[in-house]
Amino acid sequence: MGLYQAKNEEGSDPKSSSKIDDLIENEAEIIRLIKEDGKLLIDNGDGRDIHNIIQEDKLLSVEFNEVLKRFHGGEASDASHGVMDEDEDDKYDYNEQYEKTVHAMSTLNHIINKEVIPPENFSHVVGEIYRSSFPRLENFSFLHERLKLKSILVLIPEEYPLENMNFLKLTGIKLYQVGMSGNKEPFVNIPSDLLTMALQIVLNPANQPILIHCNRGKHRTGCLMGCIRKLQNWSLTMIFDEYRRFAFPKARALDQQFIEMYDDDEIKRIASEKNWLPLKW
Question: Which of UniProt's keywords are assigned here (predicted)?
Fold first, then answer.
């Protein structure tokens, strides 16, 4: 599994393990898999994932579904039907990123020049400022060779993955982390001072070219982008239109409220003193 190698835990009794446990090799893995409704790919060594194995064995499929029901109180959850809970957009999922990398590497291995693989939700913002979702292994060459990044600003509070840290050390790209929680009903959870701190990092030409990302590049990144657009004197209609296009299909009213209510006087004062404004295309 390379850089994303999963850690195997010992301690499960092979005699009492179910067939599912044998496939995954430990009880912790099946519990994690069940809680996340079987979305993760588990490599069993023969190139097949757990979904195929379960589908091929009717008895195993029945057992698996019964255990899922027990974990969800007897009813199938929205997640089991492919509808993600909103919180999952904000929480970094190491295994999900690994699954996407495996898929990308297997489907894009015919591409010799890996500089053409940007992260999901990638876009140019203004000048040498860029936005995206969480960068993965297959995106590293694009970020270094094509964008020639000086800095990355991450907006999640979780620890940055080891392979990403190794990439930054190897290329000399500086990491800034301003961890913040996403806005959830009924509260706005992004403090204005944290957003101002993030803007100071982004607007500083010494940190550019810079990439801004959270987990999926939608909500927290969208709030920061909206505040950048306010500094460019965009109308709220244009700002919200851009926000909704990147946040689709789960735009948050609280994010748009935060953008509208954000007091940009302090960042305008700082940016004016340092001649960071106006932002140039």
Answer: Hydrolase
- Out of 40, 214, 259, 267, which one is annotated catalytic? 214
- Take residue 175 and report the two structure tokens written for it: 């990491």
Within-domain flag for 5: no
Q: What is the pTM of this model?
A: 0.62
Specify whether the CB–CB gap between 79 and 36 falls below 8 A: yes
CA of residue 5 relative to chain centroid, distance = 19
Distance CA 62, CA 67 (A): 9
Length of the chain in terms of residues written: 281
| Number of structural domains in the chain | 1
Tokens of 169: 């050390």
pLDDT tens per residue, range 75-104:
433 433 333 344 555 555 666 666 655 555
Residues 256, 13: Cα–Cα separation, whole Å:
52
CA atoms within 13 Å, Cβ hemisphere of 31: 6
> Would residue 22 count as lying in a domain?
no
Q: Residue 136 is part of which domain span?
A: 123-272
Omega of the bond prior to 278 within 30 degrees of 0, cis?
A: yes
The most distant pair of C-alpha atoms in the chain lies apart, rounded to whole Å, by: 70
Residue 227: active-site member: no
121 alpha carbon, distance to own chain's centre: 10
